Amino acid sequence: MDNPSPITSDPSSAEILVNSTTLPFHELKYFSKIIVDYIEGKEELRSFYEHPVSYEGIQSSMNNRKQFNTDRQTLVRALEEQYEGVTLSKAVKDNISSLKAENTFTITTAHQPNIFTGYLYFIYKILHVIKLASSLNDRFPGNHFVPVFYMGSEDADLDELGSIYLDGEKITWNTCGNRGFECCKKCRDTGNHHHWRLG
User: I need a labelling partner for 37 at 20 to 30 A (CA). Which of 30, 101, 137, 179 fits?
Assistant: First the structure.
């Protein structure tokens, strides 16, 4: 379905009409069958999750979360301490403060640390929770949704995240000296067991 929508970056500028097309996930041919089946709510996967991928599922999840006793004051204090010394935008301050309220929910995603942030979906994940929180704020008035991204640093698998491909060439953060592997020539020559290595 084509939906022209006005886009403006400056309220004083003229509106620009943009046509957009919405495609179902299964037509993209990018996602695995299990992801498409989950998003489309296939019955054979229903035993693996509680809330469907829908606004009704989000409402059900909200109702479920209200049953948990959450120490919101401690959460807000901890976040304020973590951000101490950092200049925050008004939106971030407001979001942190809003976590004190019982009608505030988080839309959360995480990613393990990667060299140069890793794959582009790292950025997409962050943008998606921001957009989803904004959409839910419109959809569920009387509630507030805060986008949250955190680094899943407890999941630091150097073999998985220690390499990148740049211009078709694999570049690896070499830690051979303290990983029990035989040191490469550069390690032996310099005594530095943490360095970039091509290939």
Answer: 137
